[in-house]
Amino acid sequence: MLLNIREASIDSKPMKKIYPAVWQPPNDGSLKFNVDGSARGCPGMAGMGGVLRNHCGRVLGLFSIHVGIQDSNSAEILAIHKACELCVTNPVFQSVEVIIVSDSMVAILWINVAGFGSLEHVRTIDDVRNMISYHGNLKIIHNPRASNSLADMLAKRGSNNEGDLMYMGG
Fold first, then answer.
1. Could you tell me the pTM of the whole model?
2. 65: which strand partners?
3. Does 95 or 6 have the greater pLDDT score?
4. Beta pairing, strands 98-102 & 31-41
5. pLDDT per position as a tens digit, 116-170
6. Where is 65: in which H helix or E strand?
7. Alpha-carbon distance 67 to 37, whole Å?
8. Residue 153 and residue 48: Cα distance in Å, rounded?
9. In what order do the strands lie in the sheet with 165-168?
10. Tell me, what's the pLDDT at 2?
11. Transmembrane ranges (predicted)?
């Protein structure tokens, strides 16, 4: 007789789904901006990070910034905002499709669902929505954490307050 230990244990928790840690490139002619927010507590010392790459995986830009005391969702919203801002203000990136990828379903919902969001971040979310409208080729999507490992490392660097880092090439 076989026994499924997971089903037999009263105290067991559902197993986490494990995603492969593989970054998927965007289509040729598009760019992908992976972003992440990190907080060392709720709230705690927080940082945001992002990396912009082309279809070949070439890094065109990145950032790692300390954002003070925040929760992780707030840091994620700020990371999305920073990525949008960098794309809108750099003429090189204004005419191409840029897919901003976040691993926070909460942040994605706050931005993509009209009238939805955190009252604390109404202005930031509204600003992101305006930049998406202005740019015309910005999309914000959700992807699992494992495929966002470089952005995650940059966000953690920011939450450790290791000094801000910013590079935008073209």
1. 0.84
2. 48
3. 95
4. parallel
5. 667 788 899 999 999 999 888 999 998 876 677 889 999 999 999 888 999 987 6
6. strand 59-70
7. 9
8. 9
9. 138-142, 98-102, 31-41, 44-53, 59-70, 165-168
10. 44
11. none
Token code pair at residue 100: 């901003």
Q: Minimal CA–CA distance to 107: which of 134, 138, 132, 128?
A: 128
CA 86 to chain centre: 14
Q: Is 18 helix (H, G, I), strand (E, B) or coil?
A: coil
The predicted structure's pLDDT at residue 64: 97
What's the rounded Cα separation, in Å, for the pair 4 and 57? 43
Answer whether residue 102 shows pLDDT above 50.
Answer: yes
| CA neighbor of 22 nearest in space, from 64, 73, 57 | 57
Among residues 80, 48, 41, which one has the least CA distance to residue 161?
A: 48
3-state secondary structure of 53: strand
**The residue type at 124:** T
Q: What is the mean pLDDT of the chain?
A: 85
What average pLDDT does the segment 106-112 reach?
88
107: left (phi over 0), alpha (psi -120 to 50) or beta: alpha
For residue 70, the tally of other CB atoms under 10 A from its CB is 24
Whether the CB-CB separation of 58 and 99 falls below 8 Å is answered with no
